[in-house]
Design brief:
Strand content: under 5%
Largest sheet: 2 strands, antiparallel
Distance between the termini: 101 Å
Radius of gyration: 33 Å
Shape: globular
Structural class: mainly alpha
Oligomer: single chain
Length: 462
Amino acid sequence: MSNPFAYVFSCIFVLLAHGAMLLNVYFNGSYDDVNAVFVLAAAVIGLDAVYFVIMPFFRQQTYAVDFMLILILNMGLIFQSCFGGVGFQLKHFITIIAALIACRIGCLVCRDHRWIEDKKKFIWIGIGLLMGVILLFTGSRSMWISLGESTSIQPSEFMKPLLVLACATSVTEQQKKHKLLCFNVVYENLILFGIIAGICLFQWWCRDLGSIPTFGAIYVAGFLLRICYPKGKYSNKPIILAVAALAVLAVIGIIVAPPYVRDRLFVDVWNDKDGNGYQQAQALIGIADGGWFGKGAGHGFLHNVFAYQSDIVFATISEEWGLLFSVMSVFVLLMMLALPLVNPPRSYYHGSMCAGICAAFTVQMALNIFGSCNMIPFTGVTLPFISMGGSSMVVSGFMAGMLVAAQSPVFRAPKRKKGSKKLQPVQQPQQMQSVPQAPPVQPIQEAPPQPPVSYTLTDRRK
């Protein structure tokens, strides 16, 4: 851990935020037994403490996403445990733990971009297998697999991270262009277009049109990053064709949409507040009743409306906790998505992965919030990390782990394939080796001193 003081400060901040919410529940909540508040407080604070102790064992360059994740998850647990009266929501607590485990798995799986790129074909196959599972086990034109009276799985949720990875691992392939008719195309772009077209048609067949914008946002984010790839060199023709194809598909989707979908597109909620506009009308009334500071935890009415825990959860929070607190919760989510911009990813693959995840979460948030506020047609999409839901919560946790992986990636040297020759050390040319080396310079030695010659007078005369 590079900065233990920042880690401790972040822990204290999260504990104070959850503690303030629990005090609000204690003083303003609707409950018959105070033990319900104590059980909820023990679960929230206990999960915080365990998480803070475990996290340092995972070596990362930053823990910012993890702190924002545990902050929003336990905020969601407090919300869900107070709708209609304070009581510990055990099912949601279990899904939160599953989301935290999925976060760790997503981080470990997506850190090494080379390993993911080697498994690219398995990602494509996984998307196809999920479609097959839905067709075989969900029944006629459905999207849920029932495991019991109160438990079900939505397999289409698991296609979201796979589509993100499929787009992220195809960025470097933009250098490999092939001539097709009069266009220079990349084969993987055609494969990805076929995948997104198949997903959209499949979602239409399963009557889950609300998820199509999320898948479309993932694909568009990946497509834009492939265009912006430095060595991609895209021309205007494929871009114009892609935009035209998406526009045609959108028009066709509206034309062939089921009658109940077209009714939602053009319904007047106040003239039909007992029919198709019932949920949105009640959501608007609840937001207005809550005002800025809410009616108090458990004092609302929206818990009597269908899907109050998932599809219109933003309105339910606004009624009991106030619009100010609802906006603050959304701000926490946006902060978690903005962290990859503060701590830039270390590779183009990780940046593409972050862009796809942020696009998916942002569109989901917009559909849930704007649908609850009657600004767009009601779609029934969950609010990430807050709405009740098993499959969506686990997948959201996995995608949060992908954000963590983008901040602490693993770079490894490519492994040598079997049968490849080993690299030989570079030798000097032969003519350079035959050049004789100059002998070492010897120090100059002085001659030994000679004895002095004596001359006599007779000798000089001679």
